[in-house]
């Protein structure tokens, strides 16, 4: 079962985790907005249609590679405050190894393969967040 | 053909999308960007550093030297920063 959601709605962690409980092992990653350097607001822009397609392809790839029972990717878009959940990745498999590895794969590849852009506001001034080389390195380890 | 812009590329150009008809000599995304850069000062500013641009043809990520023959939609944007 694959579930991909791109939405402005708050991520319901309990509901997402419960929906994944379909086999022996569930692994998950939750990303929260950091308030580093006085960030007051983080806004996520995305490429409607292409975003959902990219996330769906990643979930399909992970499901095939690790024989997952279920995979969920929920990514929030629009304005968010520090401490709010921005992304949730969850996997379910018969055993922990596959669930944990697939979860790490999904969050690493999501950062480089899906069309999202972060804009942060600090002291009333907005700036686009620069991509990090370390994210590219993390994504390539799964090739 | 529809040309889409996102993030600071969109802000610099001033619009999120435009309908364009590139000349037949323009076949790759890089050539499309160079051709469009001549459209206005805003386009020139957005496309001044092609090394900072990424692209998608019909919603699939491609390198800038990819061709877009027959595409309905090409998107130009900065490196992605989701997650």
Automatic annotation (TrEMBL), chain A:
<dbReference type="InterPro" id="IPR003448">
    <property type="entry name" value="Mopterin_biosynth_MoaE"/>
</dbReference>
<dbReference type="InterPro" id="IPR036563">
    <property type="entry name" value="MoaE_sf"/>
</dbReference>
<comment type="subunit">
    <text>Heterotetramer of 2 MoaD subunits and 2 MoaE subunits. Also stable as homodimer. The enzyme changes between these two forms during catalysis.</text>
</comment>
<comment type="function">
    <text>Converts molybdopterin precursor Z into molybdopterin. This requires the incorporation of two sulfur atoms into precursor Z to generate a dithiolene group. The sulfur is provided by MoaD.</text>
</comment>
<keyword id="KW-0501">Molybdenum cofactor biosynthesis</keyword>
<comment type="pathway">
    <text>Cofactor biosynthesis; molybdopterin biosynthesis.</text>
</comment>
<dbReference type="Pfam" id="PF02391">
    <property type="entry name" value="MoaE"/>
</dbReference>
<comment type="similarity">
    <text>Belongs to the MoaE family.</text>
</comment>
<protein>
    <recommendedName>
        <fullName>Molybdopterin synthase catalytic subunit</fullName>
        <ecNumber>2.8.1.12</ecNumber>
    </recommendedName>
</protein>
UniProtKB/TrEMBL annotation, chain B:
<dbReference type="InterPro" id="IPR003749">
    <property type="entry name" value="ThiS/MoaD-like"/>
</dbReference>
<protein>
    <submittedName>
        <fullName>Molybdopterin converting factor subunit 1</fullName>
    </submittedName>
</protein>
<dbReference type="InterPro" id="IPR016155">
    <property type="entry name" value="Mopterin_synth/thiamin_S_b"/>
</dbReference>
<dbReference type="InterPro" id="IPR012675">
    <property type="entry name" value="Beta-grasp_dom_sf"/>
</dbReference>
<dbReference type="Pfam" id="PF02597">
    <property type="entry name" value="ThiS"/>
</dbReference>
